[in-house]
Amino acid sequence: MTPPTPIKVLVVEDSPVARLLLVHILNADPRLTVIGTANGGEEALEFLRLNQPDVVLMDVVMPGIDGYETTRRIMESQPVPIVVCSATVDPAEVNNTFRAMEAGALALVAKPVGLGHAEYENTVRNLVETVRLMSEVKVVKRWPAARRLGAAPAAAPAAKAQSAASIKVIAMGASTGGPPVLQSILAGLPKDFPCPVLIVQHIAEGFLQGLADWLEQSTGFPVRIAVHGESLLPGRAYLAPDGYHMGLGAHGQISLSKQPPENGLRPAVSVLFRSVAAVCGANAVGVLLTGMGRDGASELKFMKGAGAVTIAQDAESSVVHGMPGEAIRIGAASHVLAPDRIPVLLRALAKSSQALRPPLGVV
């Protein structure tokens, strides 16, 4: 049998040492082959004018045209799957990392640590698997922002919003491709949104504060990293911290734990959904967004069985439809929606349940 054609990768990285390490890692996997390197955005754009890689591994902070601008130009002219490969020490790099994802990059991976480091094998494995999986994603051209401004607003979901229960909390889970979807949803919620939003986003360690800052700056919706024992406030989004499961305590306060990983993950969406179902029952909404694997799918069905409204992202808008796809397959989702329609439903649910809402501070 003829072996499959290796996935063609362009590596864009201005550091010669990091570039050599990335090329070595990728070429060591027989499923991948590096067909070119570029030390900046200008070289990357010129290479793409003459060649067609299957995926681009993109640095962010580079001299000249940076990774965000390079990503934007690629996605507006000749789209190709882009994986952002970033370090976390530079605040400007963290911000531009998420701007690049907003511009169309599919996923974020941390730059591999050096040989001999305890986490070297894990970072290498994550890099290789992400590049391989993202090469299979079908990307489409992104129109410049000025051309998108005239787009029609999202229509309300056809299904009627549930109004039998007072919605007290929104629980969301996301993985690969999640940050831009979370941005879209939070941007669609009003500043006086009457419910707190709890979020588990699978992301490389060290990027979470940057994600919180970018989401808040780009949406105007307050976003913070959750603290154990704090009470929930309406109109706030809480991100599960690196390395901690997040759930709700018996009195509705945030509960963080170092319990063993679930689905190989900590934080896990499964823990959040199961906790919210147990504490809030029908007074909650569960939202499962783009991502690999099955984390949260069974627990979304548990939420549905407890009477909660449950939403799964549709296949067409998902970078990877693993998590929401599994939820749909097992009948866990009462609504299957694109990201621009999710906040429309959330607003309707919150509005319809306001008359039933208990005094603020009771979850």
Describe this structure as you would to a colleague.
The chain has helices at 16-27, 41-50, 67-77, 91-102, 120-134, 145-148, 178-187, 208-219, 269-280, 297-305, 322-329, 342-353, and strands at 7-12, 32-38, 55-58, 82-86, 107-110, 169-174, 197-201, 223-225, 237-239, 245-248, 254-257, 284-288, 309-313, 335-337. The chain is built from twelve helices and 14 strands. With 363 residues, the chain is α/β, with parallel strands linked by helices. The relative contact order is 0.11. α7 (178-187) links the parallel β6 and β7. Helices cover 35% and strands 18% of the residues. The chain folds into two domains: 7-134, Rossmann fold; 169-356, Methylesterase CheB, C-terminal domain (Rossmann fold, 3-Layer(aba) Sandwich). α3 runs parallel beside α4.
Task: Give a short synopsis of this structure.
The protein is of the alpha/beta class. Helices cover 35% and strands 18% of the residues.
Give me the secondary-structure topology.
Layout: E1 7-12, H1 16-27, E2 32-38, H2 41-50, E3 55-58, H3 67-77, E4 82-86, H4 91-102, E5 107-110, H5 120-134, H6 145-148, E6 169-174, H7 178-187, E7 197-201, H8 208-219, E8 223-225, E9 237-239, E10 245-248, E11 254-257, H9 269-280, E12 284-288, H10 297-305, E13 309-313, H11 322-329, E14 335-337, H12 342-353
Helix pairs in contact: 2-3, 3-4, 4-8, 7-8, 9-10, 10-11
Question: Key features?
Answer:
alpha/beta; disordered C terminus; Rossmann fold; 14 strands; seven-stranded parallel beta sheet; 2 domains; single chain; 363 residues
